[in-house]
Amino acid sequence: MENIIANLNKLFDSRIRLGIMSILSVNDTVDFSTMKDLLELTDGNLASHLKALESADYVQVTKQFIGRKPNTKYQITELGKNDFREHLNALEKLIK
Questions:
Q1: Number of folded domains in the chain?
Q2: For strand 59-66 and strand 30-31, is the pairing parallel, antiparallel, or unpaired?
Q3: Of 13, 15, 36, 69, which one has the greatest count of Cβ atoms within 10 A?
């Protein structure tokens, strides 16, 4: 018998990480403030989840200054796209 949850990625178990990856998969880049507003999270909560995704090489970070204000942008990596697609396919298979 096939293990129907074997292809689910544990890193995407969190609804917050699922939300982050969903946002990044349909946008070229998203800045921290926009992501925080879309997901309705605190700075610390969002930062910790983004750090976990960055550590897995699923998210790439670009830091810059706009005027005197720091601006941090995120984008999904190729590895992130592939693994997230596999996770979504596994979810779809599970539902069917």
A1: 1
A2: unpaired
A3: 36
26-52 confidence digits (pLDDT tens): 999 999 999 999 999 999 999 999 999
- The two structure tokens encoding residue 29: 């880049």
Model-level pTM?
Answer: 0.91
* Both structure tokens of 87: 């996770």
3-state DSSP percent of the chain in helix, strand and coil, to 5: 55, 20, 25
Q: Which token pair is 22?
A: 């969903």
Specify whether the CB–CB gap between 72 and 32 falls below 8 A: yes
Helices (H), 8-77: 15-25, 32-39, 43-55
* Residue numbers of the domain that contains 76: 10-95
